[in-house]
């Protein structure tokens, strides 16, 4: 996926799966938006979002690579997502 596809997928997850009104109000998710302060993504929602990234976007999220401190903006989350591998049919990163 390219960055815009990831951005659209992220917006869908935030608006449909997590039902965050702050994300739904925005036409696009700018890289500088803070997940917590601007979109109200707290630590629990961030964990839910990581699960949705795997389940819905079919991207493998290795536990050892998770650094929640570094995932503070939309841009940082998109950078993280861009590094993920697609899941294969068995649910493993390829």
Automatic annotation (TrEMBL):
PROSITE patterns for this protein: CARRIER
Protein known as: Acyl carrier protein
Annotated InterPro entries: ACP-like_sf, PP-bd_ACP
Start and end residues of each Carrier domain: 4-85
Alphabetical list of Gene3D superfamilies matching this protein: ACP-like
